[in-house]
Amino acid sequence: MTDTTAPAYSGPKRIFSGIQPTGNLHLGNYLGALKKFVDLQATEWETIYCVVDQHAITQAPDVWGGPELLASYTRQIAAAYLAAGIDPKRSIIFAQSAVREHTELAWVFNCVARMGWVERMTQFKDKAGKDAERASVGLFTYPVLMAADILLYKATHVPVGDDQKQHLELSRDIAERFNRDFNVPDFFPVPEPLIKGPGARIMSLKDGTKKMSKSDPSDLSRINLVDDSDTIAKKIKKATTDPLGPMPEDVKGLEGRPEVENLVGIYSAVSGESVEAVVAKYAGQGFGVFKPALAEVMVAHLAPITARYREIMDDPAEVDRVLRDGADRARAIAAPIMDEVRRTVGFWGA
Length: 350
Ligand code: ATP
Ligand code: LTN
Known about the structure:
With 350 residues, the protein is mainly alpha-helical. It has helices at residues 27-39, 53-56, 61-64, 67-84, 101-110, 115-119, 122-128, 137-151, 165-181, 229-237, 258-271, 275-282, 287-313, 316-345; strands at 14-19, 46-51, 92-95, 157-159, 192-194. It has two domains: 14-194 and 316-345, Rossmann fold, CATH 3.40.50; 219-311, Tyrosyl-Transfer RNA Synthetase (Orthogonal Bundle).
């Protein structure tokens, strides 16, 4: 299982993450993943950000939009990457399907991962629903493809939201098992999740016990990155709170108040102020004061991103150029690593 010993791997530090081109991005995707992608550019680490279109097709075509829409959804996520502040010169932005080695490595990893490991994945159970027999085999092995995405670049760190923790543990197990089974102790790094932070788990605005999600039927449950200022203000105003009185006096007072805790967490993640500072600022105030203030910080943060997003989407050819350049650069890293994997496994001609 996840190890406690330091990995033998001593290669360069490299960040890899991905977002599926399914539906509009929401505040959870932004704070849990995208904002971290942007912030990590301030480090010296190499940063690689993928639009995981092969993961999108693990569900039925009506869920991901079908073949006419998939490429444009991929462009939309790439545009959101750019609008949020990912610099295509500093970082690699590309589509998973453009680098064929992802699925090639995924096959090898399908033969490394054990059934028991994959069967434990709770997201499969959530996504497959009651009728798991009808889910695609791809949905089942989805986390194995995710391990291939990461390890194809020998990525050492993976920024994701809290819901991806278990998948990351599987990637770590696969890396260790490959290294051991093929007797190449330091070949793959054991990738570290980067999850911590106030945005790691943003909850629904309508139910503080459910995560904010693209698939929630109620649009009022989430803030979409493309929502305009009025819509954001309206959704915050309608956000569920509780009958337990005004804003708490201290952080302990957030216990047992998941909806309020979520709103405070959002304020903290967006403004960069600590949860303690936010609670102190609004201690004892009513939601009639806190909610408009929250809407204001959100609009101030998101409006420029939304405006840039619209501008970028006006020039899809430029987005395609970024994706093509990114695919070339990604391939240049991936191909020699995949060649090494072929030799390590012992395939003919490798
Ligand atoms: P959703 O649950 O919204 O349908 P998803 O988790 O199935 O989306 P992606 O769009 O690929 O799939 O998620 C992209 C990133 O956003 C991942 O790193 C995921 O952990 C993160 N993320 C998704 N929802 C939340 C949330 N509510 N809070 C924090 N991070 C989230
Ligand atoms: N499973 C992830 C998306 C994803 C990913 C990755 C994230 C696919 N491959 C590699 C990080 C690294 C999700 O958010 N649902």
